[in-house]
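Researcher: Structure prediction, please.
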Amino acid sequence: MEVVLSKVLKRIEPSLHEVHEAHKLFTKVKDIIQKKWPELDVKLMGSVAKDTFLSGDKDLDIFVLFDPKVERKELEKKGLLAGKTVFDELGGKFEVSYAEHPYTRGLIGIYDIEIVPAYKIKNTKNLISAVDRTPFHTKYVRENLKAPGDVRLLKKFLKGIGCYGSDLKTEGYSGYLCELLILKYSTFLDTLKEMQGLKFQEIIDIDNHYTKKKYADVRKRFESQPLIFIDPTDKTRNVAAVLSKEKLAVSINAAALFMEKPTTTFFFPKKKTIDRKKALEHAKKRGARIVVLKFNKPKVIEDILYPQLRRFLNLVAGKLSKEGYGLLRASVFADAACGIALEVDEVTLPETRKKMGPSIFNPLKHRMRFLENSKDVWVEDDRLVSEEKRKHLKIEDFLFDLLKKPLSKLTYEGVPSHIAKEVYRGFDILLDSKVRTVNSDEFWLWVERKAF
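Model: Predicted structure follows.
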C-alpha cells in the first residue's frame, strides 16, 4: 500500500515551478483588473489557492469581489468587462458562461481561467448569490487542511474510477467535497475505509451543526440525495448534493476493491479500445437487444443538456415498460453523438396483451363499462380480465409513433424543451448491429461495461 501511494503521489504532486507559474499568472490578472477598477477585490480561489491541485491541471478560478451595495446589473456588467479586459490584454480566447449570473471563461496560454464576479459578504447568512460562498470554502480549507497530499490522492482516485466532478454530466465528487472528507477522516486510507461503510443518506456534519435528534429533519430537507455532507460554512447546504446514487455506489465498491488489492491502476486506468462487434456479441449472448434513439445535439451547456437527456430517458423508459418491453438498463450520451441507449429483452411483442379490468367488488357500473368495451372476458382472482390487440408490435414502430409529433405536443407530453426541438427536427432509431455506426465513446463504454 505504501509503495503504491508513494508512486502515485510522486506523479500527481505539482512541482514548485507549476505552483509558481500559476500564482504568477494570477498576479498578472489581478494587476490588470485592479489597475482599472481599484475598488474591486481580486482573489484566487479553487484548488490552486488551497494547494490541492494535481500536477498537470491548469485551472485558475479567480473571483472579482464587489461591495454588497452594488446592484446586480452593475456587478454583471462590470464583472464581464473585467474578464474581457483580462483576456484581451493577455491574448486569450474567452466565452461568456452562465451560472447564477454570467462570467467569463477561456484560455490564456495553457491555462483554463474563469473570472467570476461575486459579492464580498461577511458571512454566508448574507448570501446574495450562490457563488458568494466560495471565498468561505477557500478560507475554511486553507485554515484547517494539514494533508494536501491526501486530498490529491483522493481526487486522483476518484478521477481514475470516473467519479470526480460536480458537473451535472458527471454527478460525482467536487474538489471541495474531497477536501472536506480528508478534513473529516484525516488521511486518504482512512477516508476509503469509512467510504466502504457509507449508508444511504449518511449524514456527515464536520462542525456538528445539527444534533442527532435533528437528523430526520435533515434527511427530509435533502430528500433523495444519497450522501449528505453539511457545509461547515453554511449549514443549509449539502456539499454532496450533486453526487448521484450510481457514482456513490461505484466509489464505495472501488474503495473496497482498492483496500483489498491496491494498485496504481485505480489512479491511472489503462485506456482500452472497445471492440464494438465483440461488445454487441456479448450483449446478444445474454439475450439483450440494444436500441439507440439518436438525434442532433442541442447547442446548450452540459449542465443543461445532461439533466434534460436523463429526464427524456426516464420518460421514454417509462412508456416502454408500460407497453411491455422489458427494460434491462439504459443510459444517455452526448459527446460526439447524442441520444439515449436502451437495453431490452425483446424488440417485438405478441399481437395481444392482457387487459386488467376492475375488481368484482367494485361498483357494478365500472364492471359493466369494462364488459361493454371488451371481448372474451374472464376472471382472475377477483379481477375481470380480457385481451386487447396492440397498436404496435415492433419497438421501433412504438418509438416512432411516440415521438413523431408536433413540437408543441412533444413538450406538452413531457419531452424537455431542448431535446424536443431536436427530436422534432428528426431522429434515428437503431437496433442491434446498426448501433455500430454510433460515434460515441460514452455509448460504447456503457455497452462494454456490462457486457464483459
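Model: The chain has four domains: 14-124, 145-266, 276-348+392-451, 359-386.
Researcher: Thanks, that helps.
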